[in-house]
Amino acid sequence: MFVTQTTKRHSLLALLLIALSFTLIGAAPAHQAFPEVIPLPNGFQPEGIASGRGNTFYVGSIPTGAVYRGDVRSGEGEVLVPAQEGRSAIGLKYDSRSGLLFVSGGNTGFAYVYDGKTGANVAEIQLSTTPSFINDVVITKDAAYFTNSFQPVFYRVSLARHGGLPPAPTSEEVPLGGDFQFIPDAFNSNGIAATPNGKALIIVNSSEGALYKVDPATGDAKRIDLGGGSVPNGDGLLLQGKTLYVVQNQLNQIAVIRLKSDFTSGSIVNTITSELFRVPTTIARFGNSLYAVNARFGTPPTPDTEYEVVRVPRK
In this prediction, what percent of the chain has a pLDDT beyond 70? Predict the structure, then answer.
């Protein structure tokens, strides 16, 4: 049989394509990119989540102070900051300018600052010596602000140039005044956010279901008019432009609020729910998705209890 060089080349090309197809099938990824559910270590007892550089996220452990660093694209990760006796990790925020991770210390009364890349301890800042629950944190151009759920105050930690910490970082206690309603023996200030220019803070009172616009310098608080609406069990906040997302933990939902340009009023325009929610507490944004931590409050924690981060569409 007469075979031309062109025929031989075509035959070899066909064989190569067949071999390549089998190779691609065999190399198919074992995990879906940007999975809907990202498992955390069993027994971790998470609460706060923060977005970092690229696809990186951070989640803190309430009883141990450990911090887990993961990737929303691959769903993989590892413990960055190990568990430490006497520490706790509630709300977290990452500052891309300095690479620092700021962590609210819960009932320790402290704020902790870690290197977001290595997990090294950078600072321990005492915020309160009275019974407190340092709950959440937000970072502006020149300061980090922390809420206290057991006291009608918040804390300001001044930052140095480019978001760094001064040589001896300290905190200033700012009383919450104006319209703020403090309910004794209840869980009050929880999530905190800052307006884009950093000139105002937004704080949710979990027990009251109310939102407040707060002057970061004086603590003067103005209740945000939601037109008769409220956000009971309000936990983590995420402000994107004039859209505020409020996690309502025990209700297993996220309220979507459109605020007016002066942030003094707005309305609840949507509610995000998911069958995967198991008492979500805080959220972080990546692209068109929100990532919520399932804290599973009410489920007795054991070393084998499963926890996860859940992805939902941003609306």
Answer: 90
DSSP character for 106? Answer: B
| pLDDT tens string 208-224 | 999 999 999 999 999 99
Q: Which residues contact 272 (CB under 8 A, 6 or more apart)?
A: 245, 253, 254, 256, 290, 312, 313, 315
User: pTM for the whole thing?
Assistant: 0.89
**Local structure of residue 10 (DSSP, 8 states):** H
* 315/62 Cα distance (integer angstroms): 29
Q: Which domains does the chain have, with CATH numbers?
A: 33-313 (2.130.10.10)
User: CA-to-CA distance for 56 and 35, rounded, in angstroms?
Assistant: 14
> Does residue 113 register a pLDDT over 50?
yes
Q: Check: CB of residue 126 under 8 Å from CB of residue 171.
A: yes
Residue range 250-254: mean pLDDT, rounded: 98
Asked whether the CA dihedral 20, 25, 31, 36 is positive or negative, the reply is: positive
Amino acid, single-letter form, for residue 64: T
Residue 119 · residue 101 · CB < 8 Å: no
Other beta carbons less than 10 A from residue 220's beta carbon: 17
- Residue recorded with tokens 């279901």: 209
Q: Compute φ and ψ for 6, nearest 5 degrees.
A: -65, -40
